[in-house]
Amino acid sequence: MLPVLVPLIAAALGLFAWRSGTAQRLIAIAASAVLLAVGIVLLVVVERDGIQTLQVSGWPAPFGITMVADLFSAILVVLTGVLAVAIVLYSTATIDGARERFAYYPLTMVLLAGVTGTFLTGDLFNLYVWFEVLLIASFVLLALGGERAQLEGALKYVALNLIASATLLVTIGVIYGLTGTVNLADLSLRFSEVEPDALVAAVAAMMLIAFGIKAALVPLYFWLPASYHTPPVAVSALFSGLLTKVGIYALVRVFTLLFAEQAADFQPLLLVVAALTMIIGVLGAVAQHEMRRLLSFHIISQIGYLVMGLALFTVSAMAGLIFFLVHVALAKSTLFLVAGSVKHLTGSFELARTGGLWVLKPGLAVLFGIAAMSLAGIPPFSGFLAKLALIEAGLAVDQVLIVLIALGVSLLTLYSMLKIWNAAFWKPHPMDLEPLPDGSVAVTPERVAETRLALAMVLPIVLLVSCSVALTVLAGPVFELVDAAAVQLMDPAVYIDAVLGGAP
Amino acid sequence: MTVMLAVVIGILFAAAVYLMLRRSVLKLALGLSLLANAANLVIFVAAGLTRGEPPLVAEGSTAPPPGAADPLPQAMVLTAIVIGFSVLAFTLTLMHRVYQEGGSDDVDDLSEADIQ
Question: How big is the CA angle at B66 (ends B60 and B69), to the nearest 5 degrees?
């Protein structure tokens, strides 16, 4: 419960400190640090004592509101904490005064509360409510600032996500009608008794659509590249690290817990969706020349790998999925933050207008290099291990085609990362550029060399990259952890016992 | 009653989809609100409709009388209505801002942030 309360309390405190930007910043940083600490404690406790449950206000499950933390949730809460610390720090250096005055930090905190709430809830209807909490916060964060592109992006984002929410709500209604409960553990028991199977399959398909929109699976992804590149880069980093992953989390949760029997029927569909998501995402990225747009398309491509893990539906695939999720959230956010720093240095996200940073800012180049190679899956970085785990899982069940696609997409990922590398870091700084339509003139290399990156801009990137490297160095223990989490996921009986069984 | 509500839900969904497919941004908002209401009705109907009997536990017994209305879906619908209302308010504000900035309520004119 504490991981949810911390950011909520911080949001409230931040609102009290409405007039003072400094106070809001300090509260946000402190709250993120506490969130990370609480997350780690939760992970340790869950790892030692098994699944933790909390029956809110003492009503026993399945009647009350249940919060559940199994290993998967706990890992994701820690991940949220890490990203929160990094991104709030980065925000202090990059978010302008106007946004700060209009409750940027409290909103971020509400978003974090929504995300952790979604990870920890043990109840389908509360899942919807937490989703709405994080959506509303994200709507405002996306539109905050009121630039025209932002507003238009936000409009599409809002419209499609509301449709997804309505679908989810209908699904919950039908599920309640079928079973008379919304507690996930209770549902898991009841679903095996529900006749006819066709209705269950229909419900599963509707869930897939509702969460598929939120996770940006391929036929449903159009809102993402239209909106993610519009807000300030700290917001993009936060969204890319967490929001689509929440959709994936929800899919994994309902498919392992509720629709485990249907998973085999959905496998072909999920595999096709995974393949298309990977391919279309990466092709979209290859075609882009603006860093944020390019990275937005990469989010979609990476989601494809996660769906692949879900589609394979074996313990090793789930372990790969969890590892990949952690890795990709770290790498993706890093890349967005680096893009923000590049923009700060060169004044542009357009690849044609950047360059020479390898000479001018070698430190930043190294950080970008690690994150980019990790994303593309070059050994020895974490992306390589994550993809290796997924690919081994694929080969283990003879899904050769999806494995080949995954490998091919890796190559294209590498290509598009090289594109950023070449354009922003390797090639000489572009000279005598035409002024942009908005009148801003290109910066000279001297200006770039003189511009210092604030500590708050570098530190988060270093933090995220070192977490990413730590994933590789500590791969043994980490894999033990995700394996345990995957075993827990694939065996709903443990979860059900923890929620409905003895008193916590 | 259930059948009639089912028809109403169908009409609401159809109207919502029709409105959302129009090019006007305002109609998109109306469509979204209809969609939310239709979803609320689905919960209401799916949980089963009963007449009368409030779900109050009489003194001395431990369960509500048989045939009482199920309070849980009503609580859920209430939550969903509140959420839907606040989201609609936000959407309308956002649309107003878009209209102010862009000077048009045609979706086709909102291409600045599009995939190019």
Answer: 105
